[in-house]
Every structure is written in structure tokens, then in C-alpha cells.
């Protein structure tokens, strides 16, 4: 990897993390924190955007843009680990059914969003 790409990936990843933090905070403020809506929204929207970018890469997207936006920006933006911890926290709160719905729901919705992004970009 050349130094320029390394720097772009790092900056894009940092920007994605800041976007995730800001959006999650805004969602928590708007709807509360009993249910992790922010992380769900982030992972579903990130999956859609990555699907779209991946499809567009085959239609003239500049070659260096996919790693920077996909791996960097969207890699910093989405967060499987936070979704996993939030699923476990629901179990710890005695909300096993909510945990199951959340964990599977985010997974299914994220895969569907990626599929939609791929289809729209094709």
C-alpha cells in the first residue's frame, strides 16, 4: 500500500467513526436508549452504501475510491462489534426476546440493504 492511500484510508476511517458517533448520539437523544436504534440504523445504512459502492465500482468508479470509501469511511462508520455488545446487553437486562429480535433483525436488514445497494448500483 502506498503512503498516500494509507493516509486517505486513515482519514476516511476516522471520519466514518466520527459520523457513527454523531449519528448514534443524535438517534439516542431523539428516541432514547432503551433499544439500540442508532447502531441498527448505522449498520443497515452502511451495508446499503457499501453494496451501492461495490456495484458502482464496476461502472466507472475511480479505482482508488472503493478502498477509501468502502474500507475507510464505511469501515469506520459501521460497527458489528457494537451491535454484538448491544445484543448481549439486552440479554443481560433480561430481555432475551428483544435480544433475539435485535440481533437477527440487524443482520437480516443489513444483508437486505446490501443486496438493495448492489441491485440499485448495477
Automatic annotation (TrEMBL):
The chain crosses the membrane at residues 6-23, 35-58, 64-85, 97-120. Keywords: Cell membrane, Ion channel, Ion transport, Membrane, Metal-binding, Sodium, Transmembrane, Transmembrane helix, Transport. It is a multi-pass membrane protein. InterPro entries: FluC. Na(+) binds at residues 75, 78. Pfam families: CRCB. It comes from the Bacteria. The keyword Cell membrane applies. Its main location: membrane. Na(+) is not transported, but it plays an essential structural role and its presence is essential for fluoride channel function. It is found in: Cell membrane. The keyword Zinc does not apply. It catalyses: fluoride(in) = fluoride(out). Belongs to the fluoride channel Fluc/FEX (TC 1.A.43) family. PANTHER family: FLUORIDE EXPORT PROTEIN 1-RELATED. Fluoride-specific ion channel. Important for reducing fluoride concentration in the cell, thus reducing its toxicity. HAMAP family: FluC. This is Fluoride-specific ion channel FluC. The lineage of its organism: Bacteria, Bacillati, Actinomycetota, Actinomycetes, Micrococcales. The gene is fluC.
Amino acid at each position: 500500500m502506498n503512503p498516500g492511500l494509507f493516509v486517505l484510508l486513515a482519514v476516511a476511517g476516522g471520519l466514518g467513526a466520527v459520523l457513527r458517533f454523531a449519528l448514534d448520539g443524535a438517534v439516542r437523544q431523539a428516541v432514547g436508549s432503551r433499544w439500540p436504534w442508532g447502531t441498527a440504523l448505522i449498520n443497515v445504512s452502511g451495508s446499503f452504501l457499501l453494496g451501492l459502492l461495490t456495484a458502482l465500482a464496476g461502472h466507472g468508479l475511480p479505482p482508488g475510491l472503493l478502498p477509501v470509501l468502502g474500507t475507510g469511511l464505511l469501515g469506520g462508520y459501521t460497527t458489528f462489534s457494537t451491535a454484538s455488545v448491544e445484543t448481549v446487553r439486552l440479554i443481560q437486562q433480561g430481555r432475551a426476546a428483544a435480544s433475539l429480535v435485535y440481533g437477527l433483525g440487524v443482520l437480516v436488514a443489513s444483508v437486505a440493504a446490501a443486496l438493495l445497494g448492489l441491485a440499485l448500483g448495477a
